[in-house]
Write a structure and sequence with these properties.
With 179 residues, the protein is α/β, with parallel strands linked by helices. It is built from seven helices and seven strands; from the N terminus they run αβαβαβαβαβαββα. Helix 1 runs parallel beside helix 2 and helix 5 packs parallel to helix 6.
Length: 179
């Protein structure tokens, strides 16, 4: 969601040594969401653009990183992603699904049944508030989903941990010892 967008922008800015990052609002729901994203853009020093004025031919080829925020209604988001994919075949993007830690396997299965066509990377969020257990991780694996990012809640800068064998093993050792 919007906080994850801000964390991704901060992470990519550090990793690629650039401030040429645009936060692009694609939400159809509330202006409160847009203000949250605008606040992150101001604090982090990145530009904010509106999806309706984003020019895929011009804005895509200018060496800027564009992070689209599809917070809000899942059906609307999937519709927009499919529309972008169909209209702009050369537009290369990675979709990331924010999955709150503590989500049960039924919820994971339900969400994945709706998004599996776009094959998003999973970002497990709010790990400092609730842990993701064996049942949840198994559900993700059984759906052939891929975890790409771990993150907590409280911090924006330096808060993304790329998911790899080392980070997942460390997480499991720290959290499954008493199980």
């Amino acid at each position: 969601k919007s906080t994850l967008v801000a964390k991704l922008a901060s992470y990519l800015s550090d990793a690629r040594k650039t401030t040429n990052i645009n936060l692009i609002d694609v939400c159809n729901t509330s202006t409160n969401h847009q203000e949250t994203l605008r606040g992150y853009s101001r604090v982090l020093g990145f530009k904010m653009k509106d999806f309706n004025t984003f020019n895929f031919k011009q804005d895509y080829n200018n060496n800027e990183i564009n992070i689209f925020d599809f917070s809000g209604d899942l059906s609307f988001s999937l519709q927009k992603i499919n529309k972008i994919s169909n209209m702009h075949k050369d537009f290369d993007f990675c979709s990331i699904l924010a999955l709150q830690s503590g989500s049960n396997s039924a919820m994971i299965n339900d969400i994945w049944s709706k998004v599996s066509d776009i094959k998003p990377m999973i970002a497990i969020t709010k790990l400092d508030e609730c842990w993701a257990g064996a049942e949840e991780l198994s559900s993700i694996a059984l759906n052939n989903a891929r975890i790409g990012i771990f993150t907590g809640t409280k911090v924006i800068i330096d808060s993304i941990l790329p998911a790899n064998e080392h980070s997942l093993t460390k997480y499991m050792k720290e959290n499954f010892q008493s199980v």
